Amino acid sequence: MGAPRRLLPAIALFALVSAACRPAPEPGTPAPAAEPSPTARVYTNPVYAFDFPDPHILRVEDAYYAYATNSSNANIPVLRSTDLAAWERLGDALPALPEWAAPNQGFTWAPGVARIGDAFVLYYTARDAEADLQCIGRAVSSSPEGPFEDETVEPLVCQTDLGGSIDPYPFEDAGRLYLYWKNDGNCCGLPVGLWVQPLSEDGLSLAGAPLEILRRDQAWERPLIENPAMVAAGGGYYLFYSGNWWESHEYAVGYAVCESAVGPCTKPLTEPLFAFTPEVMGPGGESFFTDLQGNLWMAYHAWTGAAVGYPGGQRSLRIEPVTFQDGTPVIHGPTHEPQPLP
Length: 342
Description:
Elements: E1 42-43, E2 56-60, E3 63-67, E4 77-81, E5 88-92, E6 109-116, E7 119-128, E8 133-141, E9 165-173, E10 176-183, E11 193-198, E12 211-215, E13 225-233, E14 236-243, E15 252-258, E16 265-266, E17 281-290, E18 296-303, E19 315-325, E20 328-331, E21 339-340
Antiparallel strand pairs: 1-21, 2-3, 3-4, 4-5, 6-7, 7-8, 9-10, 10-11, 11-12, 13-14, 14-15, 15-16, 17-18, 18-19, 19-20
């Protein structure tokens, strides 16, 4: 996979403040619900200091729900917050896998959740028992905290000729739903790309044809790119992604500018947009959400402390505000000191 090289530092930090946030609950231990407070105007990264990889945050009315790759004996761990600073662990959003998925594999990865009408649809990665590859499924719930149920007999997306499919990310543009993902070619020495395909109106099936819109072609991205996340802002489309090796301090976030939700997309940089600092190692697994005031945020994970990799390390949950200047995204971080909430 190419020799490691040092990446450029990320964008300057927001102004520091001195107030501290409430501590995160221990994994698996019930915690009191976060009480909204008019004085709770700061957050400190990591906002959840335990293992919570590949986070996806969905705002539902005045609450925020965070979903992650399997950890702490949960297929899809789920958290809840009312202020973005304190997070309550709710349990497992997907307690039962469908019949096509191999059980107890520890391969339930990188969820994405969309609210579609009165339902919530969870897109996730699991191990297809027949193909023995990672594939994408979908599950439904009437509540954002679950339980989500998947009664399908086969995966929603499974590119068996390209190594499988992972990292689903739902996105809505002008009333049309799309699903983005990565073909898992790095499992088998195959090319790796990022893909998009329209979804049906209820989000439960695919429509149209899959389209590959981005590939790894830069040195810092070796050996792969993954975790596509589309954002529409200021009349433009921005496809964010993670690159390099996930279990490395050089894992980082890049982006491409796209002409539409389905491309074509081009990369304006030859280096990552958002990279490691001595305090924030291997940032990636990004997703995007807006707060009650309409501000855009990026949720992501990074290794806690100096330990990079398992079993000693943990990929904790972090958030940073995102703005755009002259059509260029600005991620205001990575931060590790108390920060003001907008």
